[in-house]
Amino acid sequence: MIIKTREEPLELKLLRYLNNRMKLSDKEVNYLISLEKGFKGEEKYDDWLKKYLIGEWIVINDLLLNYNKNVFQIDSLLVSSKKIYLFNVKNYEGDFYIESDRWYSPSGSEIKDPLLQLNRSETLLRQFLVDLGFGTQIESLLIFINPEFHLYQAPLKLPAIFPSQLNRFMTKLNMSTAKLRFRDIEFAKKLVTFHREDDPYSRLSDYSFDKLKKGIICAGCNSFFGKCSYNTLVCSKCGFIEDVVSAVMRSVEEYQLFFPDKKITMNSIHEWCEVITSKKAIRRILKKEFRQLGHGSSAYYVNE
Ligand SMILES: [Zn+2]
Question: What range(s) does the NERD domain occupy (predicted)?
Answer without folding.
Answer: 37-148
